[in-house]
Design goal:
The complex is a heterotrimer. By secondary structure, chain A is mainly alpha-helical. Chain A is built from 14 helices and no strands. Chain A has a single domain, classed as MetI-like fold, CATH 1.10.3720.10. Helix content of chain A is about 65%, strand content about 0%. The termini of chain A are far apart. In chain A, about 40% of the residues are buried. The N terminus and C terminus of chain A are likely disordered. Chain B has one domain: Rossmann fold. Chain B has an eight-stranded mixed β-sheet, sandwiched between helices. The longest helix of chain B has 18 residues. The chains are: A mainly alpha, B alpha/beta, C alpha/beta.
Chain lengths: ~300, ~325, ~350
C-alpha cells in the first residue's frame, strides 16, 4: 500500500468516532428515537407476549370443537370457526408461538452461516474467496420450489424439516452483502495491526471484524425475518408443512383445503394471512432504525427550535 | 484607501447536534482589503474551516450562523436572498476546496466542468467557453489539451491547479481557499503556493487561505489570523506574527516546529489538547494549557487587545486603554 | 543474483546490524489477473538499522517508504531480495512459532491514529493481545502490570487502559500505538509516519517520546516520514527514497547540511522554516511518479537539473562520498560514457 499524500493532512475539525460505537445503549436509543421502529417494536413485543402466554388470551382450546362449523364471526367466536367447529381466534393465538419460533431460529442460523461464509471469503481472499463465492452463487440460483418438492419427498413433514429447508434456501441471500462489507473493512488499519502482531485469521474474523458489523448483522437478521415469515407460510400453504401443527401457514393450508373463502368462513383464511403480514411489518419497521444507524445519511436532521438573535 | 472587500463582524457559527450545541466559531471579526492575502491558521477543531464556510455561505445543517454579519462589497451575505447570492457566487468570489478529488466530478472531463461553471453563471457562446477555459488553464500552468482529461488522469498537483483555474474563471475579487495544498507533497506544495502568489499579484484578487501549516503562509501572506477554540487568538501582519508572537499559544506554535537549518534544541510543544467546543473552558479558553497562566485567566474571558500592530486575545495585555475597537 | 558488496559492511565494526535488507524488492500487479502492469513499489533496497539507533526513512508519496515498513513487519512478502534480522534471513522463518517470535522483536506503529484502533474494543485490547501472544510466560497479574507499565512509559495514565478509542485524542491514540508496540518488548519499532496526522503542537511530545525510547528503553526505531525537519530532530541517520529507490543516506547533519543527490537538494529547498524568508531556489513543479514497468536508468532523471546521458541508461548504485552513500552518477563523478549501451553493458542490478 503506497503512502497516500492525502493522509498528510492533520485531520482538521474531525469529530471523534461517535458513529462507530456498537454499544447496546446506543442501539436501544436509536430504536426508541425512531417512530417507525417503536411501532415495529411494539408489534413484536405483543407477539412475543402472545407467543409466551397464549393460554391467557385465547378464549378456547384451539383444537377442540367448540361451536358450529364454518360459523361467521360473532361475539362468541370473534373470527368465526373452522370447518371442524374450532375457534379461529384461539387457533390464531396459539399458532403465534411456533410461527415466531421457526422464524427466529431460521433467521439466526441463516444469518450466522452467511456471516461466517461472507466474511471469511472477504478476509481470506484468493482461492477460498472464489470457492465460497461460487458456493454462494449456487445456493442463490437453485430454484427453490423444485428443491423443496424434492426435499419434501425425503424429509418428514414437520418443523425441523421446515427449518432445514428454509435455512438452506435463504442463507445465501445476505452472504453477498456481508462479503462486500467484509471487503470494505479488510484493509482498515486496525486489521493490518492485528495481522502484524500475529493473530490467526479466524481470530481476526471473529474478534476483530464481526463485532464491527453488529448493526449490519442485526439489519440482516431483521430483513431475513421479514422474508422468512412469509416464506414459511407460503411453503405450508402449498402443503409442504405438517397440517396438524399449529402455525399460521398451516391454518392457511387447512382453510384453503376447506375452500373457506368461497363457501365457508372467510376469516379463517384471511386472519392468518393478516397475522403473517403484521409480523413481517413489525420486523421491517424495527429494521428502519438499523438502517439509520448503519447509514448516517439517512438520519433525519434534528434541529432544535430556539429563539435566535438574527435570521 | 479603498473600502474593505469583506467585513466579517462578530460572526458566530454553531452546530446543533443531539448531544450538545457546539460553538464552532465565537464572535470572530476581521476584514479583507482588495488584493490582500490573509492567512487563517489553526489546529484541528479551532473552527477555521467552519469560519470559511460560513463566510462563503456554504454551511449546511446542522451547522448554521448564529449571529454576526458578513458584508461583501456592501451586501449582507447572511441575509441575502438566493438569487443575489447565486449571481455573486463565482463572479465576485469563489472557493477552492481542500481535496480536488472530492470537489471535482470524476465522471466529467475538466473541460466539461469548466463549461458547466461558465454556463451556470452566464457565459453563452461555445467559442467564449473554449477560449476562457484554455485561458485559465494556461494561467495555472496546465496544457490546454487537458481540457479533455478526467480528474483521475491528472496528478494530485495538477488537479489542485485545475481547481484553482476553475475558481478564476470569472476573475473574482476574492478567492477563498481551504487547505488547497495539504494533500500534496512538499515540492508540489511549494510550487503551487508560488503559482498562487504569482496569480494573485498579476490578477489582483484577494485571498483568504485557511491552513494548519503556518510555514505555508509565512512567505506569502500579508496578514495572519491565528485561531484557537473558535476564537481569534492573535491577528497581525505576517512579519509581526512570526518575529514577535504575542499570544502564548502563537508562541507555543512557533516553538513547536523543528527547525531544518537552525541549531538543534529540545522542542516543548503545547501540553494537553484543544478543548471540546461543546463545553469550552471558563474564562480564557487557552488557560488549561497556557505556560503563562494567571489566576484571573480562569474566570475572566479576554477581549482582543492592541499590542503594537497586533490584536491579541490575552489578559497579559489587558488594560482598559488598550482594548481593541 | 550477483550483488555488489553491501555498502553497509564497512561501517559495521562490531558485526551484524540489528536488521538489514539486501536488494529488497516489492512489486504489485495492477489491474486484473491478466494485466501486464507491474507497480515497482520498492526496488533493490539496502538499508541497515543498528541497536539503539533512530533511522529516518524520508520520501514523498509513492516513494515506497511505507511499503518498506510493511515488508519489514512481514505484512507483505518481498518479491525479491531478503531481510536479515540479527543475521538470520526471514525466509528461514517457517513455523508459526518462528514468525511469532520475529513479530515479538519487530513491531510496527501505523500512521492513522483514527483508524488504527478497532472501535468496538477498548484501547487495552491491542496491548493485552500483544502481551498474550508474545509474552505468554507472564501470569495474569503480571500481564496487567505490564500493560500499565507500557502506558506509563509513553506518558499515558494507566487509567486510560479502559477507554475506548473515540474517547481519546489523536495524540493520545498515537501514544497507545507505541505502547502496543512496546508491550512485546521489541528491539525495533517501525514507525510509519507517526506524527503526520497530529497537530503540530502535539508532535513535539511524541517525537520526544521516541527519543526517550531509544535512550532509556534501548529500542531502535525506523522513523518513516515525509518531513525532513522532524527527521532531523529525532534521527541519527537519514535515508532518502525516491520512486522505490534509495538515493542518499548518511548521518543526519551531513545529509541535511550538504546534500549530494539532486533530489535531496530539491527536498531541502522546498522545506520552509516558518521564520525563513529566503527565496526558492527551484522551480520544479513535478511530483513523484508511479513507477509502472520502468526501464533502466535513474528514476529522477526527468526532473533532475544535471541529468546526463548515462542517467537514462544505467541505474545508479549507492557509492560512498565521505560519510554518505549516494546513488547518482553525476554526484559521484561517475560520468564516463557507456561504450556499448546495447551489448556488453556493465553489471546492472539484476
Amino acid at each position: 500500500m503506497a503512502t497516500d499524500a492525502a493522509s498528510n493532512v492533520a485531520i482538521a475539525e474531525r469529530p471523534p468516532d461517535t458513529e462507530e460505537r456498537a454499544e447496546p445503549r446506543r442501539l436501544v436509543r436509536a430504536v426508541l428515537g425512531n417512530r417507525k421502529a417503536v411501532v415495529g417494536a411494539v408489534i413484536l413485543l405483543v407477539m412475543v407476549f402472545v407467543a409466551v402466554f397464549p393460554g391467557l388470551i385465547a378464549p378456547h382450546d384451539p383444537q377442540a370443537t367448540v361451536g358450529p362449523p364454518n360459523a361467521s364471526p360473532s361475539s362468541a367466536y370473534l373470527l368465526g370457526t373452522t370447518q371442524l367447529g374450532q375457534d379461529v381466534l384461539s387457533q390464531l393465538i396459539w399458532s403465534t408461538r411456533l410461527t415466531l419460533w421457526v422464524t427466529l431460529v431460521v433467521s439466526v442460523i441463516a444469518t450466522f452461516i452467511s456471516m461466517i461464509i461472507g466474511v471469511t471469503a472477504a478476509y481470506i481472499g484468493g482461492v477460498t474467496d472464489r470457492v465460497l463465492t461460487v458456493l454462494i452463487d449456487v445456493f442463490l440460483i437453485i430454484p427453490v420450489l423444485p428443491l423443496l418438492i424434492l426435499l419434501s419427498a425425503y424429509l418428514a413433514p414437520g418443523t425441523t424439516s421446515l427449518i432445514i429447508v428454509l435455512t438452506i434456501t435463504s442463507w445465501a441471500f445476505q452472504a453477498r452483502q456481508l462479503r462486500s462489507q467484509g471487503l470494505s473493512v479488510r484493509n482498515r488499519d486496525f486489521l493490518v495491526a492485528a495481522r502484524a502482531r500475529g493473530e490467526r485469521p479466524m481470530y481476526i474474523i471473529l474478534v476483530e471484524i464481526v463485532p464491527t458489523m453488529t448493526s449490519l448483522l442485526a439489519a440482516s437478521f431483521l430483513a431475513l425475518a421479514v422474508f422468512e415469515v412469509g416464506f414459511a407460510a407460503s411453503l405450508q400453504f402449498l402443503g409442504l408443512g405438517n397440517a396438524s401443527q399449529l402455525m399460521w401457514g398451516t391454518m392457511l393450508y387447512n382453510a384453503q383445503q376447506a375452500a373457506a373463502l368461497e363457501s365457508g368462513n372467510a376469516w379463517w383464511a384471511l386472519a392468518p394471512g393478516l397475522a403473517v403480514a403484521l409480523m413481517g411489518a413489525g420486523f421491517a419497521l424495527v429494521n428502519y432504525a438499523f438502517d439509520e444507524i448503519g447509514n448516517p445519511a439517512l438520519r433525519p436532521v434534528r434541529r432544535r427550535r430556539r429563539g435566535r438573535p438574527s435570521t | 484607501m479603498a473600502d474593505p472587500l469583506l467585513e466579517v463582524t462578530d460572526l458566530s457559527i454553531e452546530y446543533l447536534t443531539d448531544r450538545a450545541d457546539v460553538h464552532a466559531v465565537d464572535r470572530v471579526s476581521f476584514t479583507v482589503d482588495p488584493g490582500e492575502f490573509l492567512g487563517i491558521v489553526g489546529e484541528s477543531g479551532c473552527g477555521k474551516s467552519t469560519l470559511l464556510f460560513g463566510a462563503a455561505q456554504l454551511l449546511s445543517p446542522p451547522g448554521a450562523v448564529a449571529g454576526g454579519t458578513v458584508i461583501f462589497r456592501g451586501h449582507d451575505m447572511v441575509r441575502i436572498n438566493r438569487n443575489e447570492l447565486q449571481h455573486m457566487r463565482w463572479r465576485d468570489y469563489s472557493v477552492v476546496m481542500q481535496s480536488a478529488m472530492n470537489a471535482l466530478n470524476p465522471m466529467k472531463s475538466i473541460g466539461a466542468q469548466f463549461k458547466d461553471t461558465l454556463q451556470a453563471h452566464g457565459t453563452a457562446s461555445r467559442a467564449e467557453i473554449e477560449q476562457r477555459s484554455a485561458e485559465v488553464l494556461s494561467l495555472v500552468g496546465i496544457d490546454a489539451a487537458h481540457l479533455d482529461s478526467y480528474p483521475h488522469q491528472l496528478s494530485g498537483g495538477m488537479r489542485q491547479r485545475a481547481m484553482i483555474a476553475m475558481a478564476l474563471l470569472f476573475t473574482p475579487q476574492l478567492v477563498m481557499m481551504d487547505e488547497p495544498t495539504s494533500a500534496l507533497d512538499v515540492v508540489a506544495q511549494r510550487s503551487l503556493m508560488s503559482k498562487i502568489k504569482d496569480l494573485q499579484r498579476s490578477l489582483g484578487f484577494a485571498v483568504i487561505f485557511v491552513t494548519h501549516d503556518m510555514s505555508v503562509v509565512s512567505r506569502y501572506s500579508d496578514r495572519v489570523i491565528v485561531m484557537y477554540a473558535g476564537q481569534i487568538a492573535e491577528a497581525a501582519p505576517t512579519d509581526a506574527i512570526f518575529e514577535r508572537p504575542q499570544h502564548p499559544y502563537t508562541r507555543g506554535l512557533m516553538d513547536a516546529f523543528p527547525s531544518i537549518r537552525g541549531p538543534r534544541r529540545t522542542l516543548a510543544g503545547i501540553p494537553g489538547s484543544p478543548p471540546d467546543l461543546a463545553r469550552p473552558p471558563s474564562g480564557c479558553r487557552f488557560h488549561p494549557r497556557c505556560p503563562d497562566v494567571m489566576p484571573q485567566c480562569v474566570s475572566r474571558a479576554p477581549e482582543l487587545y492592541n499590542v503594537g500592530d497586533a490584536s491579541v486575545r490575552c489578559l497579559l495585555y489587558a488594560e482598559p486603554a488598550k482594548e481593541a475597537v | 543474483m550477483a550483488t555488489p558488496a553491501n555498502p553497509h559492511d564497512r561501517s559495521r565494526a562490531n558485526g551484524e546490524p540489528l536488521i538489514r535488507t539486501v536488494d529488497l524488492t516489492r512489486h504489485f500487479r495492477l489491474g486484473g489477473m491478466f494485466s501486464k502492469q507491474v507497480l515497482h513499489a520498492v526496488d533493490d533496497f539496502n538499508i541497515a538499522v543498528d541497536e539503539r539507533e533512530i533511522v529516518a526513512l524520508v520520501g514523498e508519496s509513492g516513494s515506497g517508504k511505507s511499503t518498506v515498513a510493511r515488508l519489514l513487519a512481514r505484512i507483505y512478502r518481498p518479491t525479491g531480495g531478503e531481510i536479515y534480522y540479527r543475521g538470520r534471513p526471514l525466509r528461514s522463518l517457517r513455523s508459526r512459532k518462528d514468525v511469532l517470535a520475529y513479530r515479538g522483536e519487530v513491531a510496527i506503529v501505523l500512521q492513522d491514529p483514527f483508524s488504527a484502533f478497532n472501535p468496538v474494543h477498548r484501547v487495552s485490547h491491542g496491548v493485552m493481545r500483544n502481551i498474550a501472544l508474545h509474552r505468554s510466560d507472564l501470569s495474569r497479574a503480571e500481564r496487567h502490570t505490564e500493560a500499565e507499565r507500557v502506558f506509563d512509559s509513553v506518558g499515558l495514565s494507566p487509567k486510560m487502559l479502559n477507554r475506548f478509542p473515540y474517547e481519546m485524542s489523536g495524540g493520545e491514540r498515537q501514544r497507545v500505538g507505541f505502547a502496543q508496540a512496546l508491550a512485546v518488548r521489541p528491539n525495533l519499532i517501525l514507525a510509519d509516519e507517526p506524527v503526520s496526522m497530529l497537530d503540530v503542537s502535539i508532535r513535539a511530545g511524541v517525537l520526544n517520546m521516541m527519543g526517550n525510547l531509544r535512550d532509556e528503553e534501548g529500542v531502535s526505531l525506523l522513523y518513516i516520514t515525509h518531513d525532513l525537519a522532524s527527521a532531523r530532530y529525532v534521527a541519527d541517520r537519514i535515508v532518502v527514497m525516491y520512486a522505490g529507490h534509495l538515493v542518499e543516506e548518511g548521518p543526519t547533519e551531513t545529509v541535511l547540511s550538504d546534500p549530494k543527490h539532486p533530489y535531496t537538494q530539491l527536498l531541502l529547498s522546498a522545506v520552509a522554516d516558518p521564520r525563513d524568508k529566503e527565496e526558492d531556489i527551484s522551480a520544479d513543479t513535478g511530483e513523484p511518479p508511479r513507477v509502472i514497468n520502468p526501464s533502466e536508468g535513474c528514476r529522477f532523471r526527468w526532473r533532475c537539473p544535471c541529468a546526463i546521458e548515462k542517467c537514462a541508461q544505467i541505474t545508479p548504485h549507492l557509492k560512498p562520498i565521505g560519510p554518505t552513500l549516494v546513488a547518482c552518477h553525476v554526484a559521484t563523478g561517475d560520468t564516463a560514457a557507456v561504450p556499448d549501451p546495447a551489448g556488453t553493458a556493465p553489471v546492472t542490478n539484476r
